[in-house]
Amino acid sequence: QGIYSYAVFIRLFSAMEACKDAGLAKSIGVSNFNRRQLEMILNKPGLKYKPVSNQVECHPYFTQPKLLEFCRQHDIVIVGYSPLGTSRDETWVNVSSPPLLKDPVLNAIGKKYNKTAAQVALRFSIQRGVVVIPKSFNPQRIRENFQIFDFSLTEKEMKEIEALNKNVRYVELLM
Length: 175
Description:
The chain has helices at residues 6-21, 35-42, 65-73, 104-113, 117-127, 139-146, 155-162, and strands at residues 29-31, 53-57, 77-81, 131-133. By secondary structure, the chain is of the alpha/beta class. The protein has two domains: 1-50; 52-175, NADP-dependent oxidoreductase domain (TIM Barrel). The protein starts with 5 loop residues before the first helix and ends in a 13-residue tail after the last helix.
């Protein structure tokens, strides 16, 4: 059911369309929408603009294959937050989940390409068509995050990483 009714979604999205009409936004995106919520928007009577993006948690332990496919079919780009897992801050993160960057598969593939597990995880997302927004304050890691375009993962490696999916959210949405 969720905390928002259909009418609230429609009113909110209509207001966003009005912002675009007024020149206050170039495009409209949503965050943490599931397929049902996206369908409500896409089936909105008089829809002027569909969302161009849906920002959701997405990484090798939470690959969201069904949502990704649905969004592809509707030309909605998935923008993946926490593409490297997250910091282990128990005040807002599920720390019972295993740390993504210690995963043996990601590290083994990284070793093959002389890359870090983080670079492999980012490359995996990019090859799937997911836009990534890794967070870092460390200048060296920020540089490393950009060094993912000089290698490609094989189909076999992509499947190995896809098989890591545990449907594990690091960022728990408490609604």
